[in-house]
Amino acid sequence: MDMKKARLLIASFLALGVLTFLWRFAPDVLDQRSADGVAYQPQPVDQTCHVQDQGCRIELPGVGHVLVTMPKEIIPLERFEFTVFAEPGVAQQVGEIVADFDMIEMDMGVNRYTLTRDASDVYSQTVVLPICTATVTDWIASLFVTTTAGHYRYEFDFVMQPPR
Predict the structure, then answer these.
(1) Domains of the chain, residue spans
(2) Which of 114, 156, 152 is nearest to 36 (CA)?
(3) Using CA atoms, how far apart are residues 88 and 121, in angstroms rounded to an integer?
(4) What is the C-alpha to C-alpha distance for residues 82 and 51, in angstroms, rounded to an integer?
(5) Torsion sign over Cα 130, 134, 140, 146
(6) Is residue 92 predicted with pLDDT exceeding 90?
(7) What's the CATH fold of domain 34-159?
(8) Nearest to 70 by CA among 61, 62, 79
């Protein structure tokens, strides 16, 4: 093998190693806009954002704001309401809102809910999340919002109470 081919092979392995590292340990670097055109919006850094208490006010770029809320106490296998309140005029530009719930570092199956809109432009859905036998309580709620301005994903960390 000549030196030129050897350098190319080494460079290819290094590039593959860097991409593998990013894919495993820093997926948000690669996932700013996924292949299907969904723009990732990080959880608001605002200290007043408490999705399980007062809720989180998020911006839908080019559309307006919504308030995302969950109950303060969420218990496995018990129903709770996941709600998105749209500001006046925003709901007319929103298509579908879907919430997807994932336990951090655990596979709890598919927990995806399509929110329904009522006459007062409030989107909601009754959610029931599974129990974890390992007593892990850290979850992420991913909110997928389709608007006239694009498709967006927001993530909110929350904690589930241990089973009663």
Answers:
(1) 1-30, 34-159
(2) 152
(3) 8
(4) 10
(5) negative
(6) yes
(7) Immunoglobulin-like (2.60.40)
(8) 79
